[in-house]
Amino acid sequence: MSDPLNLLPLLGFAVATAATPGPVNTLAAMSGARYGLGRSLAYVMGAASGFTALLALTGLGLAGIAAAAPWVTRAMTLAGAAYMLYLAARITVTRAQENGAAPQRPPGYLNGVVAQWLNPKAWIVAVSAVSIFVTPHTDQAMALSLFCATYFVVCLLAVGLWASLGRFASGLLGDAGRFNQAMAVLMVASILYLVFAGFA
């Protein structure tokens, strides 16, 4: 990007889209509440890496391929909804170690990557980002590289913040289970909205 002032709207877009509520951030909060920030960092890193890869491939033409086959987009929407509901349910029903049994593991790096790739919101943001911040520039490779680097950092911090907020909220409540039950309701509502919007 030749104009350095473009960094400001680029950064603002990244913060606004990465930090707002959505399935991936909700899962981060639930994981933070149940397992703590440290054990949720692999998921956080996976979410940041997964979206950055999605953004890069969208800039290289992946969006056009998806647009040419609408059934693929719809299938991914349904698969993503099912996958994220599965992760949310797994976190919600997890119990602390009882009777010597090992507790379930928190969602890991691959879970974060897959959650982004099957997240309808991530696809919408990636396509919008490329059309606004990459396509208008003559040096699209440089524009895409700059945006991917910026978004990786912003996404890493944003998803990590959600995990931290989940830990903090569960500490206030004194019960991660109650917090995650409330977040699960929000998760279901957001996923239903994304699914119905995608099929409208």
N-to-C SSE string, H for helix and E for strand: HHHHHHHH
Measured between the Cα atoms of the first and last residue, the distance is: 36 Å
Number of strand elements: 0
Query: Major sheet: size, sense and barrel closure?
Result: none
Mean pLDDT: 79
- The coarse silhouette is globular
Task: Report the β-strand fraction as a percent range.
Answer: under 5%
Class by alpha and beta content = mainly alpha
Number of H- or I-type helical stretches: 8
Assembly classification: single chain
Residue ranges: pLDDT <50 for 5 or more in a row? 1-5, 96-102
Which radius of gyration do the C-alpha atoms yield? 18 Å
The helix content, as a percent range, equals over 70%
What does this protein structure show overall?
With 200 residues, this protein is mostly helical. The protein has helices spanning 7-19, 23-35, 37-68, 70-93, 109-117, 120-134, 140-173, 176-199. The N and C termini lie far apart (36 Å).
Q: How would you describe this structure in keywords?
A:
single chain; 200 residues; mainly alpha; 8 helices; disordered N terminus
Task: Write a concise synopsis of the structure shown.
The chain is an all-alpha fold and 200 residues long.
Describe the protein's topology.
Elements: H1 7-19, H2 23-35, H3 37-68, H4 70-93, H5 109-117, H6 120-134, H7 140-173, H8 176-199
Helix pairs in contact: 1-7, 2-3, 2-4, 2-7, 2-8, 3-5, 3-6, 3-7, 4-5, 4-8, 6-7, 7-8
